Amino acid sequence: MSPSRFTPEHIEQCWHRALALWDVQVRLSPPEPHVPFHPDADHANEPLAYIDLVKRQVFVHFELLQSMGAADSLMAVLAHEIGHHARFPHTLGWDAELRVVEQRLLPGLKQSLTNLFYDLQVNEVVGRTHAEDLCRVYRGFQRTSGDAPTSPLFFFYLAIYEELWGRAPGDLVPPAAMAPMEEQFPGLRAEARMFAQTFYALPNPRLQFLYFCATFIRYLGKPDELSYVLPLGDDVSQPDVDDWDAALQSGGRWEDVLDEARKRGWLDAVPATEAPDLLDQIRRITHHLPGTGDGRLRRALVARHYRRLVDQHLVKLPSAPSRPEPYLRTTPEAWEYGDDPSAIDWTLTVLTQGHLAAVSPLRRELEADVPPPSELGVPSVEIYLDTSGSMPNPAQQLNSMTLAAQVLSASALRKKAKVRGIIYSHHAPVVSPWMYDEERARDFLLGYIGGGTLYPFDILSGLSQEEPDALRVIISDSDFLANVTEKGAMEALVRAARRSRLLVAFLALGEDVRARQVLGPVLKERNFRLVVVKWLSDFGQAAAALSQALLEK
């Protein structure tokens, strides 16, 4: 069949037959031709078929299907894609859950094996009636791949299909590679046969996945260097932050099947099966994500983890006002070269300037609607957070000082106060604007600088003049005492205490004797308080007690 014979009628017929195979109704548009992502590159590197969940559209690379000699396999390819959408994995939340467990069993795995896992499930169903059509795709994929050697992973994967569909050895795997592979991995063929007989007989998908990982680990090589390409791969979308977050909380659902897998001896070759720290889990699952998604996703998941920790320490208070997004337009002004082009109000410009609109545009900035005032008696809160190297990066390990800052911030915001954060280390402290909602404050207070400690007394002096009635909390450790002994530091601290409603030094110290000696002059001020926490593990609870004392009483 030539590409021109992929007529709309033929495509529609294959589409309906594929839907009938799964006996489902899906909210997907019939397949459209795939437009190459890289037009100048070899089309063999493009996906054969996939579903765009945003557009709810199926795409098929008809030209690649033809070049593979598998044009008659269109119905099987469409059935494969529908199988992913309808049953395996069906939801991206399930996909995220498997990826979390995968990183628990195979830490550092560069490329997820979940697509292989789903393909084994989908192809077993499609292959009951269309095994030859799928075989044609896999043979064609190897022909279009050129002389590239078959990896042990892909060889074993194809050997499973040979056993599953009753094919002779060498029907799918390269015959020339059979002897070398058997020599490198003794018993490979027998293991493929055993996998085909065992995998599909297991009673639940969680047990299936553990057996799958335990078997395939032998053929991965170095997990942190794993990279593979499948003819029907890369056709499952990536989970979003909600999917990942829910998956990270699902560990308890796996303990029973993990125990059963250990009893069966499947996990003997797995390095470790104990659940890692949740922040370490977040690092593992985001470490190898492509592009810039890694940083944003990791930060969002870390923020949700700290939010749960904060909620453990705080009594639920009235919710904070909605985020004051800028949406009120200001008075129009003439736009000048160098101004932000996005500030141009083209509608107003055309209405008022007429034919001169293109050469004399008008701009209007956006202002936020000021939220309602805080509850009577609740002050504005400034939090000075020490992020020097003496404490870990909060995205990689639980930082008790960061947690304390989050608790204080959430307490104030739930009382409808406003919060400003200052994160500092040895240089370039970062000052936030006034924040009115927990999400923004939480994200800012997850910032980390590292290095030595140099308290920003100049910023403290400036902000205490700007907002004299604010409540200020300094979160640090013994390094703060060393900073206070610098020239002019104590005088600046005393002046700031006098201007503030209250200035609190919230310090992690083994004892308070030296602190009271060093801070003697400022301890005489009625607006200064010293709070010492001996154990870092108590910081969150102490911050909750402090916030209750300062904001409730």
Give structural notes.
The protein is built from 22 helices and 13 strands. The strands form 4 sheets. Strands 10-9-8-11-12-13 form a 6-stranded mixed sheet, with helices on both faces. 46% of the residues lie in helices and 10% in strands. β9 and β10 (430-431) form a beta hairpin. α1 (8-22) packs across α3, α4 packs across α10 and α15 (400-414) packs antiparallel against α16. The protein has helices at 8-22, 62-67, 74-86, 92-105, 114-144, 152-164, 178-184, 188-199, 205-216, 241-248, 255-263, 278-287, 293-313, 346-353, 400-414, 438-445, 457-466, 478-484, 489-499, 513-518, 520-523, 539-552; strands at 29-33, 49-52, 57-60, 326-329, 333-334, 362-363, 366-368, 381-386, 419-424, 430-431, 471-477, 502-508, 528-533. By secondary structure, the protein is of the alpha/beta class. It is globular and about 90 Å long.
Task: Note the topology.
Layout: H1 8-22, E1 29-33, E2 49-52, E3 57-60, H2 62-67, H3 74-86, H4 92-105, H5 114-144, H6 152-164, H7 178-184, H8 188-199, H9 205-216, H10 241-248, H11 255-263, H12 278-287, H13 293-313, E4 326-329, E5 333-334, H14 346-353, E6 362-363, E7 366-368, E8 381-386, H15 400-414, E9 419-424, E10 430-431, H16 438-445, H17 457-466, E11 471-477, H18 478-484, H19 489-499, E12 502-508, H20 513-518, H21 520-523, E13 528-533, H22 539-552
Parallel strand pairs: 1-3, 8-9, 8-11, 11-12, 12-13
Antiparallel strand pairs: 2-3, 4-7, 5-6, 9-10
Helix pairs in contact: 1-3, 3-5, 4-10, 5-6, 6-8, 9-11, 12-13, 13-15, 15-16, 15-22, 17-19
